[in-house]
Structure prediction request, 201 residues.
Amino acid sequence: MTRGPGWRGAVGQTLELDPKGATVMRALLVYESMFGNTQQVAEAVGAGLAEQLDVTVYEVGQAPTTVGGGIDLLVVGGPTHAFGLSRPATRKSAADQVAEEPERVLVSTGPGIREWLETVAVEGAPAAAAFDTRVRVRFLPGSAARAAQRRLRRLGCRLLVPAESFWAAGAPGPLRPGELERARQWGARLAAVLTPRRPVP
Prediction:
């Protein structure tokens, strides 16, 4: 996987660039993940963003309660549960499934993106985007990313691009082949749209 300059990968760590005297825009990425699929996508998106931006990636349980005015781009992502953002009941179901499979580790153990977006304070009007992970099932509607976008709009954010979905082979995963590279490319495109002086890859 290609990673942007200065990528350090740890949750809550800033993925720093060498700005070489130029003004570098800042992005904050907050994700929720049960089985680790959305975490992998978030890290890939962060790597793409880090090709042009300073990026900080947080698991939602560690995310700040205020998005300061210095943030130019807010990106949120989570798994699609029951046609939308996760709820306490759907997260409990995922936790119960993990408990039955000792080789698995539950990534997000507390409130999810839904609750974070209900309580976070957003200063200014940053650009925003949302993604989700989903299982491709014919005629099955619903998207956590689209639900997150509606909440981002209510917080005063300016939606930069349409919601994006990344596909898993099943609820526990794994991700379908090529999805991590597609996530990295999506992150790079987000950064390019935010900084249009640079060509979109």
